[in-house]
């Protein structure tokens, strides 16, 4: 599972490839890009306008992880598909929760 995250400052940063305008909000799993870097593929129904897709991403991750929304934030890639999302939570906790959801479903 390593490669799509890094521990930083007492929290975790996830590398995410976000697809807006999807049929459903969901975590697809870990993918490797053409550049060889891994990321967590996530789809949201929201449009990529006025931060709506970023807000939907933060909401989906917070709900999936059982975290308050204030502990999840997009910190890089606000207008790009490839994003860095900061989670104010321990790596072990996050990876245990995501473990069952990163196999493509």
Give an overview in words.
This protein has one domain: YggU-like (Conserved Hypothetical Protein Mth637, Chain: A), CATH 3.30.1200. The chain has 105 residues and is of the alpha+beta class. Helix content is 22%, strand content 35%. A hairpin with a 5-residue loop joins β5 (72-76) and β6. Strands 1, 2, 3, 4, 5 and 6 form a 6-stranded mixed beta sheet that branches. The chain contains 2 helices and 6 strands; from the N terminus they run ββββαββα. The protein is globular, with a radius of gyration of 12 Å.
CATH class reads Alpha Beta
Task: Supply the helix-strand structural class.
Answer: alpha+beta
Bin the strand percentage: 35-45%
The CATH H-level superfamily is: YggU-like
Radius of gyration: 12 Å
The percent of residues in helical segments reads 10-25%
| Number of distinct helices | 2
What number is the mean pLDDT?
89
Span between termini: 15 Å
Assembly type: single chain
- Under the CATH scheme, the architecture is 2-Layer Sandwich
Family: Belongs to the UPF0235 family.
InterPro entries: DUF167, YggU-like_sf
Protein name: UPF0235 protein C7I84_14640
């Amino acid at each position: 599972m390593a490669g799509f995250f890094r521990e930083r400052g007492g929290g975790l940063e996830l590398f995410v490839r976000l697809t807006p305008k999807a049929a459903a909000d969901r975590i697809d799993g870990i993918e490797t890009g053409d550049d060889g870097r891994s990321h967590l593929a996530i789809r949201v129904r929201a449009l990529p306008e006025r931060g709506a897709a970023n807000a939907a991403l933060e909401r989906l991750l917070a709900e999936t992880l059982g975290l308050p929304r204030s502990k999840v934030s997009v910190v890089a890639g606000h207008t790009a598909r490839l994003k860095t999302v900061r989670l104010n939570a321990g790596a072990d906790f996050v990876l245990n929760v995501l473990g069952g959801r990163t196999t493509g479903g």
